[in-house]
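Sanity check

After download, print the first record. It should look like this:
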Amino acid sequence: MTQQTTTEPTQPTESTKDYLKTALDLIESDAVRSASVDWTTVRAVAHRLAANASTTADTYAAIEFALSALQDRHSFLQRPAQPYGSSPGGFGIKYVQGVIARVYPGSPADHAGLQVGDRILTINDVPVGHGINQEMPRAGDISITYQPRTIPDEQRLHLRRAPFGMNRVPQGRLVRPDVAWIDLPDHGGDGTLPDGQLYQDVVQDIIAKLYRAGARKWMVDLRLNEGGNMYPMLAGIGPLTGEGPLGAFVRDGETWPWVYQDGAVSVDGQVNSRVTGQPHPPLDAETRVAVLLSPLTSSSGEIVALSFQGRPATRLFGEPTQGLTSANGPYPLSDGATIWLATCYEADRTGQVHTAEVHPDLLVRTEWGDYLTPQDEVMQAALAWLSAY
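Expected structure tokens:
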């Protein structure tokens, strides 16, 4: 949930055997799903995978195997010199059921002209499935056959992996004279945006400007929030969630609440993010808020959604989220690699524990070709509810 700064890889003096043991020990001891794993078998397989390791990097496959055995989809190995919040090399697209939902600015997909709403037909001549980025390989280049949303003929292109930035600046606007829409994007980092502003300051500034412009009902769009650092998100949107405990991390009967108060977000009394100026006052608890979800909403995006669960005058619209409702944190290793490990689950402000997807109150599918257009059915359903009162 917080940023971990990586360093250039170095070869430590410890043996690869000790390095692997350290990694396996911390996974077994701290992972929230550790009890579901047959560690005798997993350790045996991991040691076979690393039997010929001469450097710590040669053990990464064994560590990733152990992490995959957790089956939590939220624990992973971050390799050295890979900054959190940027891609070490990829294509820059996310598609759902083959339809492109997101194109990262400056990515190979962006440079190639792919657009939201285009339909991916095949990746390396293999038809894509119904999942998120299904059939996308983890290594190598790709050839794509796709159907542009504006051209009837199928197109084909080749993409090479390249680094690209992943952080977007929050946005907001009035969609009706008294209804505001706020795009709350994911964020990998300490809150600093590409333009040097702080995420939380930008969001509260948006809220203040839209409130002065007449907004009294709100849409918080989390459909493209794939996670990252939860704290700037909550510090920014705090005037809408309200003050006090918004949820909690939970494990083995213990709870660690996250709290918004006076422009700051804290966990167990430790402030993790704060606006730099005077915070916007919390809006009235009966102010109507519609929260928009999609299958791309994950991790910290789901935490923001849970922070609205149990709030009066609030309704969730869209589709079930990815189901990464666990908290993961960094465990640095001696060569600059970092294990991000899911260590606990999450509860909303009512105390309900969530271990899977966050479900909307009203199920409405996002047709990504209509995203943010007047035909966007999720926005229209939210507007209908907000305008009925």
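If your output differs, re-run the checksum step. Summary of this record's structure: Confidence is low (pLDDT under 50) at residues 1-13.
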